[in-house]
Design brief:
Blueprint: E1 4-10, H1 14-24, E2 30-37, H2 44-57, E3 65-67, H3 81-84, H4 106-116, E4 122-126, H5 131-139, E5 147-153, H6 169-173, H7 175-182, E6 188-191, H8 193-196, E7 200-201, H9 203-210, H10 215-235, E8 240-241, H11 245-252, E9 257-262, E10 264-266, E11 277-279, E12 291-297, H12 299-310
Parallel strand pairs: 1-2, 1-4, 2-3, 4-5, 5-6, 6-12
Antiparallel strand pairs: 7-8, 9-12, 10-11
This protein binds alpha-D-ribofuranose and calcium ion.
Residues 11, 13, 15-16, 41, 127-128, 244 line the site of calcium ion.
Length: 313
Amino acid sequence: MPPRKIIIDTDPGQDDAIAILLALGSPDDITLLGITAVAGNVPLSLTEKNARIVCELAGRTDMKVFAGCDAPLKRKLVTAEHVHGKTGLDGPVMDDPTMPLQDQHGVDFLIETLRAEPSGSVTLCPIGPLTNIAAAFQKAPDVVERVQEIVLMGGAYFQVGNITPAAEFNIYVDPEAAKIVFGAGVPLVVMPLDVTHKALATKSRVDAFRNMNTKVGDMVSAWTSFFERFDKEKYGSAGAPLHDPCTIAYLIQPDLFKGRHINVEIETTSDLTLGMTVADWWRVTDRPANATFMNDLDADGFFALLTERLARL
Ligand code: RIB
Ligand code: CA
């Protein structure tokens, strides 16, 4: 099987950073065509900078990083410094990047790449708010059918919300964008909190990162040790949930995950449940299935894959 061509759309974010490193550590499985940054965990000026910091950490100063949208389609930006810290990559001290940011807007890169690559050959991996993806679909509707698959981190059903009682952060920040993406008809694999809350960086797993005795291992252990506190306090979790790397692990080893092909709609009007992913898990409606919604994973297998690939960097 040739490597899968993907674009990662991201708001680094420690877990985003680990997802990018997993992709860069898996060249036999993944060809990363580019990284588009979006406003989310922290403002765009930081997410694009953090994406470049991560590429430099992996020794990939050749990677194309683009800045996309700096605010949701219709709403004010909501950020998550309370989880990821002021820089978005709090934990270790990080040097400013020296590699360049691309001049082209991230949304235009998405459109141009989808038009240039053979139809059905590029997978999009959004792991932040869906603003860039939705903006590309609005600006160039012709590219929608050219997308091979979207594998995204976002939403929740049994785990309900992490930013409000009803909504997960990525969907909540830009619910209108999520509605566009979930309604586009593109094959969709969703990694909601229901599965990512089972991908916990426990002490022994963080020790395995640290025991790599590499710069990457040191950074990843410092990031996970920093951003675990939010989930430990709120959920009593045994470690940081590695939300975003679940998307990349799925592309490399899909049998690590289990879920259902169901209908998932996005709440965009009610203030009470704005951004909720209304997942018809029990198929009680006749709404057509539009997403493979994951709810279980082989956590030991996930961390074995992650640790092995990070150790290559
Ligand atoms: O709710 C978790 C998601 O929000 C992750 O993608 C994390 O990076 C933040 O963006
Ligand atoms: Ca993210």
